[in-house]
């Protein structure tokens, strides 16, 4: 049980980093579409 408790912060950090990566990737697509003149919204 102790090992699972100890690994929680690393799991949360990895999850946070992954979500930021996904959001950044999608935001990058949105910016490129805007730059290319594609109407997104």
Structural description of this entry:
The chain has 41 residues and is mainly α. It has one domain. The protein contains one helix and no strands. The longest helix is centred in the middle third of the chain and has 34 residues, at 2-35. It is rod-shaped and about 55 Å long. The N and C termini lie far apart (48 Å). The mean pLDDT is 85.
Show unreliable segments.
none
**Compute the gyration radius: what is it?**
17 Å
Largest beta-sheet characterization:
none
Shape: rod-shaped
Strand content: under 5%
Mean pLDDT: 85
**Helical segment tally?**
1
Order of helices and strands: H
How many beta-strand segments? 0
From the N-terminal CA to the C-terminal CA, the straight-line distance is: 48 Å
Domain module count:
1
**What structural category characterises the helix and strand content?**
mainly alpha
Residue share in helix: over 70%
What labels would you give this structure?
1 helix, rod-shaped, 41 residues, single chain, 83% helix, mainly alpha
Give the topology, please.
Elements: H1 2-35
Summarize the structure.
The protein has one helix at residues 2-35. The chain is an all-alpha fold and 41 residues long. It has one domain.
């Amino acid at each position: 049980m102790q090992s699972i408790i100890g690994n929680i912060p690393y799991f949360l950090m990895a999850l946070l980093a992954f979500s930021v990566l996904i959001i950044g990737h999608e935001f990058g697509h949105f910016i490129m579409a805007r730059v290319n003149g594609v109407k997104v919204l």
